[in-house]
Amino acid sequence: MRVDPANRLWRYPGIRLAALLFFAFLYLPILVLIALSFNANDQATIWTGFSGQWYGVVLGNDDILRAARNSLVVATIATLVATLAATLAALGMATGRFAGQSLIQGLIALPLVVPEIVTAVATLLLFALIGLPLGLTTVIIAHTVFCVPFAYLPIRARLEGMDRTLTEAAGDLYANPWQSFRRVTLPLLWPGVLSGAMLAFIISLDDFVITYFVAGAGATTLPVYIFGMIRIGITPEVNAISALMLVVSIAVVSLSYLTARLRQDPSTSPATLTGHETRTGEPT
Amino acid sequence: MAAAAIDLAGLAKTFGSGEEAVRALDQVSLAIRPNEFFTLLGPSGCGKTTLLRLIGGFEQPDAGEIRLDGQPITDLPPHRRPVNTVFQSYALFPHLSVADNVGFGLDMLGWATQQKRRRVADMLTLVRLEGYGGRRPSQLSGGQAQRVALARALAASPKVLLLDEPLSALDLKLRKEMQSELKRLQTETGITFVFVTHDQSEALSMSDRIAVMQHGRVLQVGSPREIYETPRHRFVADFIGEINLLEGELVQAPGGAALQLGEQIRLGLPPGVTRAPGRVTAAVRPERAQLVAASHGNGALPARIDQVVYAGTDTTVLLSLAGGQPFRLRIQNRTGAAELPAPGAPVGIEIPPGSLQLLED
Ligand SMILES: Nc1ncnc2c1ncn2[C@@H]1O[C@H](COP(=O)(O)OP(=O)(O)OP(=O)(O)O)[C@@H](O)[C@H]1O
Ligand SMILES: [Mg+2]
CA torsion sign, A152 to A154 to A160 to A166? Predict the structure, then answer.
């Protein structure tokens, strides 16, 4: 890392050490976990030699595979539905001012600060009250709901940064409201939708508390399954699944990043978009 | 006369309500002629943009009617109006190439691909941007973006083109260039232009006719010459160019109407003044008054020179009248012109009858 000597932050004593400690705490355990997942010993914490055997064990375990499939099914459906709902909500909020708008804005974002355990108990209570048997369906419903605010925020931010005269220009050029949405709003909104969906997917894949409460028999997801395994002790198998989940998460993020890049839209990335506006909008 | 291209009848628009209500437009009626370069001129906040947005359909009037070629369009949404706009921020679609931007309207109108491609190429040639079709808006300079916006708005040959201060973001040199470019495009395409600006010299040099606006009202409509030489309102006189105001008594003298200033001085007014005698304000442009000797007599205003400002093509003389009011006079610098009296010297100001213009307040 090159340090700019002019940056006054670096003059504070101990700032390097603090930064170093922060990154060490964050990433060392993950690195150790990945290393130990290749441990030949069946005592997870004692290194004896390199082996890929635990990945074989994981991939041969039907229960783990079923949990993984559940996780993917839940995350996929929840992401699709939540992103759609979030997009519509963001568009609705952007159409103009209406009574109670800021209240609704708050209500959409509130779940982000409500303790998850409260949401979990409340959701379970709801399912019990309406008599919905716990299973994969209840997990999907719960996930869809708590994913909405996560998907909503980046979409809303993107929409707020969008020049409103662009849709007026589309209308001026004979586009009816639907064409204007299809040809102008949506393409410009797409990066926001993509990051919203990505966030929702990761959050769903990762969720434990709510899932633990509302998952019935046969609806176990990976995090819940890993929790069950860990009660017996940290095994190399647990390390291997965790490492795999990390890979999947990174893959999802990279994939969405790459698709955004591949659309080859230098102008839809936020940086160049604002760059263009300042370039033509101010006296040169 | 042919039917107006755009007929605005009694347009009114108020934003907000209660205490915060802003009357942006107040009983605006205008007839804009076909093939005309028509300019809306006025200070910031006078309602120019609002009027343009009403014509474009982005805003609905509270009262009044808009007709295009005699057809009422007041209730049509923007995409049903054969009117295109050049937005002040250009509003180019950042995710589309220059060619796709220009072709956007044609796409929406269902043009065939071949035809569209040809038209786009023609439009880019028209605005002198051949070969720029593949670029992104972010890769254009301000002047180029401006011309793409023009090409895009002209592509579907609208009946009327609306331009909201399209040159305000450009530097002076580019601005001059685009002014003549706009004028050329308007003449070549024969499309009616409704142009918004708060720059009076831009308005004077480009327009066929100008509407001067203030506080949501149209004060005067006329050719640049009429607006400059015969302003009817004090605001119009003040807003456009420099002007001297003289307050006096309107009297009917044997030789016709005249302006009586104080006891002695009486200035002839142009023929055809029908106003009743009484207190009036008259205006005279600095270049229309002449400097004469102090001993000139009753037809001249006695004054004293305060300052002489030499400015190359002309010289501005700042004077004080007998009552202390300032007066500004401009003299062309010709070869062999007589030396001007020094500051402090008493002089006379002669105002030819045709140069004095009576104002309504
Ligand atoms: N959407 C709106 N909501 C509230 N007030 C508005 C709105 N649009 C315009 N106004 C007000 O209406 C008045 C006229 O505005 P308008 O934009 O038409 O002025 P303008 O002549 O175009 O000024 P400028 O030269 O600064 O662009 C202003 O007082 C403005 O504040
Ligand atoms: Mg304006």
Answer: negative
